[in-house]
Amino acid sequence: MSVTGITEPDLGLEVVRRRGDRARGFIARGLGRSDGRVGVAILAVFAVLAIAPSLFVGPLQTVVTATGSSLEGPSSAHLLGTDEAGRDVLNLTVHGARISMTIGLMATLITIVIGSLVGIVSGYVGGFVDTVLMRISDFFLVLPTIVLALILAPIILDIIGPEAEFAGIRATLLVIVVVIGVTSWATTARIIRSQVLSLKERMFVDRARVIGASSLQIMWRHIMPNVVNLIVAQAVLTFATAVFTETTLAFIGLGDPTAPSWGELLNSAQSSGAPGLGAWWYIAPPAVSVVLVVVSFTLVGNALDDLLNPRTRRR
Amino acid sequence: MRTSQSRRAAGLLATLALTGGALLAGAAGPVAAADPVVLSVGTTQDLDASNPFNTELVVGYEAFALTYSLLVDFDKDTHAAPGFADTWERAADRVTFKIGDNRKWSDGEPATSEDACFSWGLALAAIADESYIGSGYLDPGVKDAGVTKIECPDANTFIAYTADPSDRIFQVYVPILPKHIWGELDYTKIAEETFDAPLVGTGPYTLAEWKTGQFARFVRNPNFWGKQGFADEVVLRFYADNTDTMVQALKNGELDYVHGVNADQFKQLQGDTATYTAVAGAANGWTQLAFNTYGTGTGKTIKGGGASTKALQDAAFRDALGYAVDKQVLVDRVLGGFGDLGDTVVPPVLTDYHVTPDTVRTFNIDLAKQKLDTAGYVLDSAGKRLDKEGKPINLRLYYPNTDDNYKKVAQFVQEWYGQLGIAVTHQSFDSDTLTALLLPPESGEDGALAKYDIELWGWSGSPDPNGLLYVFLCDQIGTSSDSNYCNKEYDDLYALESKQGGAERKATLSQMQNLIYDEAPYDVLYYDANLDVYRNDRFAGWQNMPSNGTPFFTYGTLNYTLLTDATAVPTPGPTVVATAGATAAPGATTTPTATQPPSTGGTSSGGNMTPVILLAAVAAIVLGGWWFMRRRKGPAVEEE
Amino acid sequence: MSAGYFVRKLAQALVTIFAIIILNFVLFRLMPGSPERATRNPHLTAELIAQNRARWGLDKPLFPDQLVNYVQETLTGDLGYSIKYRGQPVVDVVLEAAGPTILLIGLGELVAIVVGLAIGARSGWSRGGIGDRIGNGLSLIFYSMPYFVIGMPLIIIFAAGLHWFPTSGMTTPGGNKDLFATLWDLGRHLVLPLATVSIGLIGAYSILMRASIIDTRAEDYITTARAKGLSDGRILRSHAFPNALLPMVTLIAINLGYVVAGAITAEIVFTWPGLGTLTVQALDARDYPLLQALFLLVAVSVVLANFLADLVYGYLDPRVRA
After folding, report:
1. pLDDT digits (tens, 9 = 90+) for C19-77
2. Residue-wise over B606-621: b if at least 16 C-beta within 10 A, else e?
3. In this complex, is the C-beta atom of A34 within 8 Å of any C-beta atom belonging to chain B?
4. In the structure, what pLDDT confidence band is assigned to residue B546 with cuts at 50, 70 and 90?
5. Could you tell me where the DSSP H helices lie in A211-279?
6. What number is the average pLDDT over the span C222-247?
7. Interface ipTM
8. Of the given ranges (B249-263, B311-325, B411-425, B433-447), which has the lowest mean pLDDT?
9. Taking the mean position of all CA atoms in its chain, how far away is CA B353?
10. What confidence tens digit (pLDDT) does each residue in B174-220 have?
């Protein structure tokens, strides 16, 4: 969806200020909003869990190291009960935070890098390059990530084989990351591009051009710092989408069964009959975690985004 | 115009609300009275083919056995019973079958010995060509029974000449197909037929409709000459990878019978004896790890396919792996106790033939490591086990998506082999896809490369042990063999025991069981019970077949015709439960239910609590959302 | 709307559709074992496979022969044969599954649009009020819930728990029901999946409608209307609501693709025999011809929906019309 216009009057005027400062000030203002604060608080909790899950719940339990018996209800030994293999659900959910958030983070990085590059280049260079890039982004914009991912993921897996590993990351995980990243950059690219289009006409860009700066320099030194806010806001929103998409793909069965992300846990819960057995403790923790994280990211993202653009957009 | 728009919207809402309310109100009420009686059966397998020669799944056997009679059927003790033939007479070199007069196919055409000659003739033609029909699962039975020639001197007589005097001819699972429909086809062409519904058969119920991945519907065959079933229709519904939905459908009364629930579900349903009867049928089969030993005994290789390491061809390697699997843990943790530890390839239910291996492997990781070292498979500096080519061993373990237990087993195996320094990646597939993946070039399929290392799957056999033992024959590579194992000595022993009887046969079978156990192309993990559950409220007259088995998905389809109307019987509940109660524990081999009462009580009350807990959770979310939104009020307004 | 605008949008849509076909072709040929892979299908006879090889030009070079062949076949509606569905033409298989999905999604969209717009409009109109807080809070939560997370508790409560509705499927197989009984049966099966899809969609519509109403509320004509002494409800209904609807048109059309994608997970939970369940079957069976046809169908309908949205938008919004 395209952005109708940038309304913030002060954008792009204070070029002298350093990039980092601007972003920081902007984030601080975003967090000044209470919904943004709540979002950040929830995310902070999950971030801490994701960074050091073993600190809180010990190492990831496997079927062999499981400490309980099949589908035990919550007790003092297992605060959130156990899964069908006797693993502690709390343990799995906390470790799931790490896997889900890592996938989300990596996918977001890919999305943002591609999106920003395309947006800046397309907006600044214009002409034929712009047309081609925008037609490509049209394609990805129109097609829903999940539909593209559904056909891409199994084919890529088939080509490289599910047992392949890259830098210690299993192919099944990596494919999900790449597929999410490659299919969801178009929105970011569009938003950045329209911002760059207006920046291009500003005085400071002209001045830089006059003193002989190359296009690359201008894009990096002058354009980039002025869209970094937008990038941050987009990254936060993208993260929410990425976690959501990962959950869905894993639930459908395209995840890595050895890496219990939240989607994978929900998939196992469903296939082991937990809903019918009334094992709510197996379903609720991963489901609530997903919803909490997605809501929080959306809140923070919207808070940041509202500063730049009062319109909300779809997932 | 604009106001009318929103009014229309309101009208629509009201309509929807009304419809919803009406649906709700009527939902609990009884359905129209004149409905036909439908017996609904759920299974976790997804029917793969309605052509009997192309199915490889238990559900496929069930489907074709409902439609087509076998020459000789099975009674409730799995002994020979009248099927397509009424009577038979055994002579030294032949069996003469008599088929009754005025028998008809479901389309009214006469059913005669010609149909039997046609059907068995297909199998014999394939055997004569040293080939097989379709997936090659049915015709070996004819060969295995020692049938050399068949004759149909008149419409009522079918004579089969046999090379050995065994009873296996009465267990041949070749359906009698209508010659007036398929008669023009030879054995290669029949395998290409799709057998589209509706089908013409002589069985109790014939296939009327098949929605791939959803259900197969069978209608009662008015021309069936056995007892006419009480149900007007039988529907097999497929729940691949979805036992949860299946069990919920059973609880909701949408299904009368479910086949293949997991241990947790079984225990929960077992607790409610008023509504359900839970049957843990002793398995005439097992779950195994089949190693891809392609090349063993043949020296062949597959370009661009086969196993990822030559180590799998080495019996010493496979033997060592056997010490790294704790079968007791698998039975306890995966099966919830409903099964027996696996050893040989003759299941213990075949008490006459099963032996305990001479050298039993017991769980001992250190011993496994030591054996691997001795066999020349050493660790590298990174702790990875290397094969003799110096390549780290990474094994691909594949299993079908029909059983949740496979996924758990795969995780255990991955852990245990991992402790030996052997990496395992596992993945599940649709049954059809998995079969295609396992087949070697011998199958003649385009692109069949046997590209796997370990297959985790299972077999279920026939009352004679040969039904499972033939899987290891050299000539099964490309059809039913999933280990691609070939051993001349085994083939010879098989030929020998097929002609033997009594103690002699038992001795040979013992030798064969030990041979396969020691060579270990298979690691038989456990003999898993079939966990089936049925409702007591609609149908009565359930019969376990045999007495330690399950009512359906066993041999023959007798039970489908035995069922009666449960609501018509004055006291249906107690009698049914009593029968089933005696058989609920699967024979003397398993004692899964000893500690059941407390845990099932807990689970079932948990089941009743679930809606309440979930409603509470929803309420909590709503309240949380409200609280949360209240907090954001002030600043949000200022922002714009 | 000018002819130029129409032509430009039409060209864009056609280019995208063409790109989708090319992508389909490339993916198809990228797979290991191609082109043999394309014809490997245990359910086809040797003759049929040979026929296909010849027809698809698999023994000719990839470019241009195979590509041209592929585009031709696709445009004439020949997408090959399904593996899972025993050699049936995939077009037939896909079309059969399209009905249930259209029914479910169509009704789901309808309910979600009506309810979502109503909630969003109320929320935005009384911004900051208690109704807004609850409405907007719930919308955000629903918006963040994957469909299967909504569907699972619904089954547990209303099907397995209270036995009000069936757990799965679209019809009860068996029996010879009359028209009313058939519809009744369908209706009962439809309730829970429909609720799931609607709840999943309400969030997006309500959030956007709220923002749209808030924007509208600040416009001059609303102030004018208020100055004229019109009642608050009246202003919302006859002035703010219709104007706030404009951006929604685009959203609804664009959303279609996402709806189909999301419906996949809703369908799985209820084993609803539509495109979603079919997609998962195709995935499990690695039935690539079927998967590709599904992809093509969804992608093309999304492109067409977008094209329609552009047209409607162009028609409604005077700024674009020029």
Report:
1. 888 888 887 666 654 445 445 555 556 666 666 666 655 666 666 777 787 888 788 87
2. bbeebbebbeebeeeb
3. yes
4. confident
5. 215-217, 224-249, 262-271, 274-277
6. 73
7. 0.80
8. B433-447
9. 23
10. 999 999 999 999 998 998 888 998 999 999 999 999 988 889 999 99
Judge whether B46 and B237 are in contact, CB under 8 Å.
Answer: no
The residue type found at A39 is G
Closest CA to B484 of B297, B288, B311: B297
- How far from B65 is each of B38, B58, B60, B219, B236, CA to CA, in Å? 18, 11, 8, 13, 13
Rounded Cα distance between B322 and B522, Å, is: 9
**Residues B517 and B344 sit within 8 Å (Cβ to Cβ):** yes
Decide if pLDDT at A142 tops 80.
no
Beta bridge partners of B206: B219
User: Could you say which of A32, A70, A275 has the minimum Cβ distance to residue B244?
Assistant: A275
Give the number of A-C residue pairs with CB atoms closer than 8 Å. Answer: 134
Look-up of token digits 């490889």? B56
For B428, the 3-state DSSP assignment is strand
Window 183-222 of C, Cβ < 8 Å to A: 204, 207-208, 211, 215
Q: What pTM value is reported for the model?
A: 0.80
Q: What b-and-e string marks burial along B276-310, b requiring 16 or more CB atoms within 10 Å of the CB?
A: bbbbbbbbbbbbbbbbbbbbbbeeeebeebbbbbb
Q: Return the higher-pLDDT residue of B373 and A176.
A: B373
pLDDT at B524: 96
Q: What angle do CA C19, C22, C25 make, to 5 degrees?
A: 155
Query: Helix, strand, coil % (nearest 5) of chain C?
Result: 75, 0, 20
B628 reaches A (C-beta below 8 A)? yes
User: What are B637's two structure tokens?
Assistant: 């307004």
Nearest to B53 by CA among B161, B150, B163, B142: B142
Contact of B214 with B237, CB cutoff 8 Å: yes
Of A114-118, A173-177, B585-589, the one with minimum mean pLDDT is B585-589
Instruction: Give the three-class secondary structure for B512.
Output: helix
Q: Do C284 and B610 touch (CB under 8 A)?
A: no
Determine the Cα–Cα distance for residues C85 and C64; give it in Å rounded to an integer: 31
Lowest-confidence pick of A296-305, B99-108, B513-522:
A296-305
Q: Which chains touch B (3 or more CB pairs under 8 A)?
A: A, C
The alpha-carbon radius of gyration of chain B (Å, integer) is 28
Q: Is the pLDDT of residue B14 over 60?
A: no
Q: How many CB atoms lie within 10 A of CB C27?
A: 19
Please answer whether residues B171 and B462 qualify as being in contact, where contact means their C-beta atoms are separated by less than 8 angstroms: yes
* Residues in chain B, total: 640
Distances in whole angstroms, Cα of residue B114 to Cα of each of B104, B176, B201: 13, 10, 14
Our measurement of the distance from residue B371's CA atom to the centroid of its chain's CA atoms, rounded to an integer in Å, reads 35
Lowest average pLDDT, out of B43-57, B595-609, C18-32, goes to: B595-609
Instruction: Give the C-alpha separation, B639 to B136, whole Å.
Output: 73
Chain C interface includes B445 (CB < 8 A) = yes
- Average per-residue pLDDT in chain A? 79
Chains in touch with C (≥3 Cβ pairs < 8 A): A, B
**How many Cα atoms occupy the beta-carbon half-sphere of C132 within 13 Å?**
20
Backbone angles phi, psi at B177, to 5 degrees: -95, 155
Secondary-structure percent of chain A, ordered helix, strand, coil, rounded to 5: 70, 0, 25
In whole angstroms, give the CA distance from residue B378 to residue C254.
59
Closest CA to B505 of B518, B345, B472, B513: B513
Taking residues B600-628, report their average pLDDT. 48
Strand segments, DSSP code E, in C100-258 are: none
What percent helix, strand, coil does chain B show, rounded to 5? 40, 20, 45
